[in-house]
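Q: Sequence in, structure out?
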Amino acid sequence: MIFPPTVGVMDLFLILAVIGILAAIFVLFITLVPIDITLITRNTGSAYHHTITVVWGLAGFRLVAGEEENFWEILVLNHAVFRRRADNLMPKPSPEPGPREKGSTGLLTARKNLPLFLDLARAAWRQTLLRSVCVRVRAGFADPAQTGLVFGYVQALRGIVSPWEVIAIEMEPLFDRVALEWEAALGIRIRHPSFLFPSGFRLAWRLART
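A: Exactly. Output:
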C-alpha cells in the first residue's frame, strides 16, 4: 500500500517537534535546576563517618565512608534505589615509598592542564551558593588553661560570623580530659550547572587526549 506523501511529512514534523520539546526540556533542566551538595563528617574519637550527597532534581548520589560501612547509592526522590558496597574507599596504610621516579606523568599532566582546572574552578565559584555551615567541636587539652584559651578564640570567631545566619559554630570545652571530637556539615548549591559545562568539557577533552 502506498501512503500519500503528506503523511510521511507530517510524521517527520511530529518527530522533529517531539525532539525539539525534549531538547528544550533538557536545556531548561540543566539551566534552571540547581545541584545541591551536602558534606557531613563526624569523628567521635573512637570512630569516624563521612557522607557526601549530590542531588540534582529528582535524582541523586550518596557516598558513605566510615570504619563500619563503606558504600555508594543512587537516590530517587531522596530514597535509595540502588546500593553497592565499596570497601576500598578509605586508603589503607601503604609501605614506605621507594626512590622517587623521574618525570611523574600525573604531575606533568596536572601542570599542563592547570589553566583549564583554574577555569573550571572559577566557573564553579561564580555559580556556587553557600547554603549552610555547621560545626560542633568537643575538645580538651592537657593544660586546662590552653583549653580555655582555644574556647575563647572560638567564641570570638562566633561573634565575627554571627551576621551570617547560615554559619553556626559551637564548642564544648573539656577541662578534665584530652579529646578532640567534631561534627561538621557543609551545604552548597550550584545555581546554574550548565555554566560549568564549557569549562568541564574542555578539561575532560584535554584529559582524554593526554
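Helices lie at 5-32, 105-112, 114-127, 144-161, 197-209.
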